[in-house]
Amino acid sequence: MDSSTLKSHSPYKRGADWGAWFGIYLSVLFFVTSYSVSSPVCALIGLLMIIGVPPCIYFMLRKSYVSDNGTTIFSSLWMEGISIFFFGGLIASIVAMIYMRWIDPTFFDSRIDTLIGMYSSMDMQQAQDAADMLIAARDQKLLPKPIELTVDMLWLIVFSGSILSMLMSWLVQLTKVSPRVHKQKK
């Protein structure tokens, strides 16, 4: 097998390529989970999308592993997974920031009001305490700004994605890949 027939890409390039698609997935997940408090359908879709993240990452890493004939080392797969989460999270964070800052500036405040109403309507003391805490935080302007939320969202995506990528890289390497035969053109 000639080495020129194998086209191997950097894990960063692959991560960026897959990250663009994953960013769309995470952006949809942001909107679905954001409206899940007021819509049971969005809550169900959001739950299914969250459950779908590990198989999605597994598929992406497996495709890279197979394209390299099963020769990709663990650390390269792991870095590709981290890159997928970083670039995807970056796209989703930018989309969330634009939405919360310029398209719907009352987005976060309306979600807090919904939570306050929900907690206030419950008969449990802990729910009343949570409602009082949210009211006090809102009145004292202690709630985070959209940029703070998006930076925290990006950190959460990358950190949890790093751990998930490690597991998925290990699972991808558990299955062997049968080598492909490359035909030489005459």
Describe the overall structure.
This protein has helices at residues 11-34, 40-67, 74-103, 107-120, 125-139, 146-174. 75% of the residues lie in helices and 0% in strands. Helix 3 (74-103) packs antiparallel against helix 6 (146-174). It contains 6 helices and no strands. The protein is an all-alpha fold and 186 residues long.
Structural class: mainly alpha
Alpha-carbon distance between the termini?
Answer: 15 Å
The oligomeric state of the chains shown is single chain
Unreliably modeled segments: 1-6
User: What is the helical fraction, as a range of percent?
Assistant: over 70%
Topology:
Layout: H1 11-34, H2 40-67, H3 74-103, H4 107-120, H5 125-139, H6 146-174
Helix pairs in contact: 1-2, 1-3, 2-3, 2-6, 3-6, 4-5
Question: Key terms for this structure?
Answer:
disordered N terminus; mainly alpha; elongated; 186 residues; single chain
Give a quick summary of the entry.
The chain has helices at 11-34, 40-67, 74-103, 107-120, 125-139, 146-174. By secondary structure, it is an all-alpha fold.
